[in-house]
Design brief:
Layout lengths: L2 H20 L6 H25 L5 H26 L2 H26 L10 H19 L5 H35 L1
């Protein structure tokens, strides 16, 4: 098994650990949860770096990496929605999760048409992901609606806006193929 795929698999294994630590009834649990999330985020960067650097890219890794990312983000957002108990957090979370489902389906469909490159990850998508990870991290490690969490909420809304923008970019890029099939 290739090192990048091991790191991606580790990220998936960390998900139940992340959830378990999130629910621990100790005052250190938010910080520990943030550390687990940070390790997962670091492995996301590291597996991509090593796949390129060691020339260990693989179709399995190309499939598994986005699955691991989307699972971690969706589960994190679901936990935050529960903790914050307000539509102000639910709305951007639903936008982000919904977009991930739409774009994943679009990429799969475009791949079947042999046009996967037209919906490849964009710079906006990378910025969106970075903001999303920052938002989740800040909101996990702090009490809901504290100063730190407000910075996370602002980052979450910025990520949601970029989410919508990047979704429209992907849909526009795929539109010629989509309109042919209608």
């Amino acid at each position: 098994m290739k090192i990048p795929n091991i790191l991606t698999s580790l990220r998936i294994v960390l998900i139940p650990v992340f959830v378990l630590v999130y629910y621990l009834p100790y005052n250190w649990a938010p910080l520990a949860t943030g550390c687990v999330f940070a390790v997962a985020g670091f492995t996301d960067w590291l597996d991509g770096y090593l796949a390129r650097r060691l020339n260990q890219s693989s179709p399995f890794g190309a499939f598994l990496d986005p699955v691991a990312d989307k699972l971690m983000v969706a589960i994190s957002l679901a936990l935050l929605v529960e903790s914050y108990e307000t539509a102000w957090i639910t709305i951007p979370a639903v936008v982000i999760i919904g977009r991930e489902i739409v774009i994943s389906a679009l990429r799969e469909w475009m791949a079947e048409l042999g046009q996967r490159a037209s919906v490849a990850v964009s710079y906006i998508g990378k910025v969106k992901t970075a903001l999303q990870m920052l938002a989740i991290m800040l909101m996990i490690v702090s009490e809901p609606f504290s100063q730190i969490s407000w910075a996370g909420i602002v980052a979450l809304y910025l990520a949601a806006l970029l989410t919508i923008w990047s979704m429209f970019q992907y849909l526009r890029a795929a539109w010629p193929a989509l309109s042919e099939e209608m």
